[in-house]
Amino acid sequence: METIDVSQMKAVFDEIENRVVSRLRASEEVYARLLRQRNEIKSRHPFVRSVFEGDASVFPSAEDYQAWLDYKKSSDESDQMERMALYLQGHADCFAYLRKIGAL
Question: Where is the DUF6664 domain (predicted)?
Answer without folding.
Answer: 8-104
